[in-house]
């Protein structure tokens, strides 16, 4: 299975820290998985201008094609102004409307306070549903207080991250089996 771990901001460190932990869990539990970490802070992504994602060049082409070739995506995002950051929204705008069809998407959200815990429900899930993702229902929400010196210090958060990884892989395997059964029903 091809998995993309996406850190969806070009500023800050908490989301990347959380995604590094998540990546470690993936590599420990699923060593045979083909995993790519995409940190949007490390790429020069252009603004979407409506072109097909394959028409872009450089980092933009690499990042969009890597996402499109994945079976599953774990998206990490900070909460900015009670919403997703512009860099992540731009990434969605660069992709086609059916970009996540037949893909499982898990979410990890970081925020300064608990007041933003519904951002994933009200902002991120609707975008992913519109783009045809199979969204893992339970997401991980990590607050400022769960970090200390660029480390996650809340064991419950680490447990939830492990569960998110397991659920993402389980859902991806289940949906792959469903697709295979549906494809086998056709005579061509």
Automatic annotation (TrEMBL):
<dbReference type="InterPro" id="IPR005025">
    <property type="entry name" value="FMN_Rdtase-like_dom"/>
</dbReference>
<keyword id="KW-0288">FMN</keyword>
<dbReference type="Pfam" id="PF03358">
    <property type="entry name" value="FMN_red"/>
</dbReference>
<keyword id="KW-0560">Oxidoreductase</keyword>
<dbReference type="InterPro" id="IPR051814">
    <property type="entry name" value="NAD(P)H-dep_FMN_reductase"/>
</dbReference>
<feature type="domain" description="NADPH-dependent FMN reductase-like">
    <location>
        <begin position="1"/>
        <end position="143"/>
    </location>
</feature>
<dbReference type="InterPro" id="IPR029039">
    <property type="entry name" value="Flavoprotein-like_sf"/>
</dbReference>
<protein>
    <submittedName>
        <fullName>FMN reductase</fullName>
    </submittedName>
</protein>
<keyword id="KW-0285">Flavoprotein</keyword>
